[in-house]
Amino acid sequence: MNFAHAVVKATGVSETARLGSLSDSDIQRLEDAIRNPSKFGIPNWLMNRRKDRTTGLDSHLIGADLSLQGKEDITFMVNIRSWKGIRHSLGLKVRGQRTKTSGRTGRSVGVRKTLLLKKPTEE
Question: Which residues constitute the domain of residue 70?
Fold first, then answer.
């Protein structure tokens, strides 16, 4: 089950209904459920911000708040000089991926061709 299915089930809106065919009250109910999922009985493990570092609460962020919080988390890791923070600051892979061949930027991969010059023939 994902968050969208949980919101639709909690609000009682039809899963097959198109957004344009919903009434204003249905749309308002969906927005309220997305902004405050715990009020509608959606479990905490479906939220995208579990156990916030500053408040310790579970929340569900949307839009610009989500991207800003992600940037703040990365700058926090960089400032405390954690392994992930160092990898972020160097622009390398963070989650243990291989870097020998993949993830190269600005460089060509493979063998570089050399131009073969013919020697002038003697006559």
Answer: 63-94
**C-alpha span between 2 and 15 (Å, rounded):** 13
Same-domain status, 2 and 40: yes
Cα dist. 98→14, 68, 123 in Å?
44, 28, 55
- pTM for this model (two decimals): 0.67
Q: Write out pLDDT tens, residues 55-81.
A: 888 889 999 988 999 999 999 999 999
- Residues sharing a CB contact under 8 Å with residue 11, sequence separation 6 or more, in sequence order: 26, 29, 30, 33, 40
Residue 120 lies in a domain: no
Instruction: Count CA atoms closer than 13 A to 52's CA, side-chain side.
Output: 15
Number of domains making up the chain: 2
**How confident is the model at residue 87, as a pLDDT?**
93
Same domain, 2 and 44: yes
Encoding tokens for residue 54?
């500053």
Contact status, residue 77 vs residue 84, Cβ threshold 8 Å: yes
Residue 30 resides in a domain: yes
Instruction: Provide mean pLDDT across the span 93-121.
Output: 74
